[in-house]
Design brief:
- By secondary structure, the protein is of the alpha/beta class.
- Helices cover 41% and strands 16% of the residues.
- It folds into 2 domains: 11-130, 3-Layer(aba) Sandwich (Rossmann fold); 145-406, no CATH class.
- The protein has 17 helices and 13 strands.
- β8 and β9 form a beta hairpin.
């Protein structure tokens, strides 16, 4: 059976970047669909070369100019982080053909190493885009659907999503391979993904020595998802230095496995919580790392709220990143514990979003949004209480209850 093609929101942005820049760098986690997307859009016009095989990598490192002569543009260089020394010679080639756009399409899954070399070598010559796993929009065939606060009318034409379908989807996560093959065993796939990630991506990073201890760190972090991250406590529980825990967190963030959400400060004189929160970038990865295999158990268990928050954050960040926009998402929490889960910057306004596991929204759920509005005033846009049900209704002035599928 042929693999189902899933249209990505980034496609028009990627085409435009290829028309305007000599080089395009497409970053994102392993298995997010970077190679598939580039081959689909540019496979007929560009030669494809993967730098992951050791012999190809060795050739690129040993004789960069000779390698580029052997593979002249237009060309796709996949997993370019394996041969970062090639980038200055790509710059040299680009400068010789400065008037030509779309010469080099580069991909990479290690932001930590790749971006440093891109900044040094291709500044001003390359568009840098991110491809993350699938948003719900992409998975359901409406990749360009606007976010709730961007719609001119308060209607949504997407089909309702049952509670069972919602949680089964969250358990599988957003990686294209699982979406394209619905019968694929998600638990086995995620286990293989984590192992591949550890062996191929993490092993090459100098910040990680003991892979077993690092894997323990990942699982402990998953258990604390959506909570205020106290690295000192986490490091103590694992028996590692705090600086080691910080370095490992930076590795996870740079390889697109976690999203660090920092607190928003409207008034520097206010005593607000300064500690960040950490979410796994893919809700399926979160469920796998915490041992969840059953949708009902995930929905009713102690991590149900964290899973819903992760799903909402993923949908927002993926939707914005796939437009070529840098998502700016914060949380708001006072020292007294009044909180709004997410604040999304949108056209100089802040969109407050509270996430609830319940499928029965109530006015009391908007308490934090009303408190935020009193604190920061006119900067606040219409707020939303995103829930797991399928009803949309007002929850007081300037707050709407919104089903997750309508976000």
């Amino acid at each position: 059976m042929p693999t189902r093609y899933i249209q990505r929101s980034l496609e028009p942005v990627l085409r435009r970047a290829a028309r305007e820049f000599p080089a395009v760098v497409l970053t994102g986690p392993r298995q997010s669909g970077k190679t598939t997307l580039l081959k689909r859009l540019f496979g007929r016009s560009h030669r494809y070369v993967s730098l992951e095989p050791p012999d190809v990598r060795a050739a690129a490192v040993a004789d960069p100019r000779g390698f580029l002569d052997a593979y002249p543009p237009p060309v796709i260089f996949d997993e370019v982080q394996y041969a970062p020394d090639l980038l200055p010679y790509v710059k040299e080639s680009v400068d010789r053909r400065r008037s030509r756009c779309g010469q080099y399409m580069l991909t990479g899954s290690q932001n930590l190493l790749l971006m440093q070399n891109i900044t040094e070598s291709l500044a001003g010559r390359a568009a840098i885009l991110r491809l993350l796993p699938l948003s719900l929009r992409e998975a359901t065939g409406v990749p360009q659907a606007p976010l709730a606060w961007e719609r001119s009318r308060r209607t949504d034409t997407r089909a309702p999503l049952s509670r069972v379908a919602l949680w089964k989807g969250l358990l599988r996560g957003g990686y294209p391979e699982l979406a394209a093959h619905p019968r694929r065993d998600a638990a086995l796939w995620h286990a293989a993904y984590v192992q591949t990630y550890l062996e191929r991506d993490v092993r090459t990073l100098r910040q990680v020595g003991d892979l077993t201890q690092f894997q323990n760190f990942i699982r402990a972090l998953a258990a604390r998802s959506a909570q205020l991250l106290k690295l000192t406590d986490l490091a103590r529980d694992l028996g590692v230095a705090v600086n080691t825990a910080k370095a490992w967190l930076s590795v996870l963030e740079a390889t697109y496995q976690v999203i660090v959400v920092r607190p928003y400060f409207a008034n520097v004189g206010k005593r607000l919580v300064k500690t960040p929160k950490v979410y796994f970038a893919d809700v399926g990865t979160l469920c796998h790392l915490t041992g969840l295999r059953d949708a009902e158990h995930a929905a009713s268990g102690p991590l149900g709220g964290a899973i819903m928050e992760t799903a909402v954050l993923s949908e927002i960040t993926r939707t914005l990143a796939h437009r070529g926009v840098d998502p700016r998402v914060y949380f708001w929490r006072t020292s007294a514990g009044v909180e709004v889960d997410f604040l999304v910057e949108s056209q100089e306004k802040l969109v407050p979003i509270e996430v609830k596991l319940s499928s029965t929204p109530k006015p009391a759920m908007a308490f934090g949004i009303h408190a935020l509005r009193r604190d920061i005033g006119d900067r606040t846009a219409t707020g939303y209480v995103v829930h797991s049900g399928d009803v949309r209704l007002p929850l007081g002035e300037g707050v709407t209850a919104l089903p997750f599928r309508a976000l």
